[in-house]
Amino acid sequence: MAGAPPKPWPTGQAMQLEPLVRRVLAPNPSPYTYTGTQTYIVGLGDGCAVIDPGPDDPDHLLALDAAIDGEHVCAIMCTHTHRDHSPAAKTLAARTGAPVVGCARLVLDDSGPRADAAFDRSYEPDRVMEDGEQMTGPGWTLTAVATPGHVSNHLCFALEESGALFTGDHVMGWSTSVVIPPDGDMRAYMQSLEKLQAREQDRVYYPAHGEAVEKPHQLVRGMIGHRRQRENQILRFLGEGPHAAADFVPKMYKGLDPKLHKAAEMSVTAHLIDLERRGLALQSDDIWRTI
């Protein structure tokens, strides 16, 4: 994972990215959120949609109020329900009367190694969007693109008028996504990357963390290659003898911040589970070996 850029960061400022898209950065930086969660506002004037409203933080909600500035909010749309993405939906819906639409509700007791990615228990969608369903407003159309893997309920949203794709945490502008079992699924994640790779209409990605991705297909191709390289590393180390999942981290992630070791171990575990399902690895008493 890359380090954050030098401060100051444009927290709380509405930045115009293209005629239909504005971005507001939430004040929740961390080793997993980079400079913070980016909320996107789609549409101008007669009605807008708010994508990934972010944490239920008073300063962030005030910044969203200022950015919307009395516009009619047609929908509050969430890519997934990690706690840095969806909690502000409830408060924003109460303020604006807008429906909460997008991903399904998902709450697991095992929320992984990082506190800021725990599941949002307050999330209650008024409408769950299936793959290919659309939300429309004045001059804009957002299409749901199902991309499970990071979590099973993850959606991206495609802005049909401009070729922009809001990628949430599935594709980020600064790091690969963490895939944490039991809900995170490496096979599903890879299939979702391949699905995006096949979408020729996407001109730019707007991720929830990190800068806009101007060459999206090149990045996705590299991400697929990176994951295959990780899988090959795991198989090579398993060929040397049995390993616990934690044993792979110092071998595969040299120089990694110790704070991120547990997350790296979870991604390795996701790869190992995928290999086991494919008949290439076997687990016994938390020890993995080749078959």
UniProtKB/TrEMBL annotation:
It holds the Pfam family WHD_BLACT. Keywords: Hydrolase. InterPro entries: LACTB2_WH, Metallo-B-lactamas, RibonucZ/Hydroxyglut_hydro, Sec-metab_biosynth-thioest, WH-like_DNA-bd_sf. One of its GO terms (molecular function) is hydrolase activity. SMART domains: Lactamase_B (SM00849). Residues 36-209 form the Metallo-beta-lactamase domain. This is MBL fold metallo-hydrolase. It comes from Erythrobacter mangrovi. The lineage of its organism: Bacteria, Pseudomonadati, Pseudomonadota, Alphaproteobacteria, Sphingomonadales.
